[in-house]
Amino acid sequence: MTDGLSPPAPPRLFGAERLVGLLRTQRWMWAEASCKWTRRPLPSADYARRLGEGQRFTLRRGSWMSVLVPMVVVAQFVDVLVAQGVIHLAIGPAHRAIAHGLLLFASVWMVAWAVSLRSATQHIDHVLGPHALTLAIGFNQLCRLPLAAIAGIRTIDHQSARGNDDWHDVHQLKPREVTLLSPLDRPTLLIELAAGPNGTCWTRNGAARPLKRWVAVYVDQPDAMRAAVAAAIAELPPSAARQP
Question: What is the pTM of this model?
C-alpha cells in the first residue's frame, strides 16, 4: 500500500492494486464530505500540503465545478421522488424496504461524491516545484512530471474550434493520443512529454496508469502556469535538461 502520493508498488494479486486504491478513494471521499458538513479540518487541506512546496495553480473556477453540488442535489431530489413512486408500485411489500434503502444510499453517495469532489478541487492545486510539476485532480488522480521530461507546453484554444471540430482537431491530435486530467471541465493546458523513459508517474484511484505523449489538464490560469513551467524548464542546469 502507498500513501497516495508516490508510485504504488506492483500488486501481488491481479486487481488488488485497483481495489485498494478504490477503497482508499472512497475513504477520502466520505471523510471529506463529513468534515465539510461538520466544519472540521478537511483531509484535502492535509493532502495538499503533502504535495510539497512550490508555486500553486488552482482548479476552482471551472464552470462545471461551480454548479456541481446544487445540480446534483436538485437532480437527486427529483430522481428520488420519481424512483420512490416507481418502487412503491413495481416492487412487492417484502422487498420494498430493501429497495428504498438502496435508493437512499445511492442518493446520499451521489451528494457526498459531489461535495467531496468540489471541496477537494477547491483545496488541492497543481504544484510546480524546482524539479517536477505535480498535477492533482482531487484525491482521484495524481501525476508527477519531471521538468526535464516536458518537451513543450501550450494553452488549449477552444475558441478556434469550428463546426464539428473540437480542441483535438485545433491542435491536430486524436483523443487516443492524449491523457486527460480534468475532473469535469474542459482542459485548458496541453503538455507534451519527451519520448523515451522520462520518470513520469500517473496514478488513478491509486493504480498506476501509463501516460501518453500528450497530457491535457484543467487549470484556472493556463497562461500563468504555461509561463511558469516554461521559465522553470529554462532554468534547469544543463545536466538535468533533456537533450533534443
Answer: 0.77
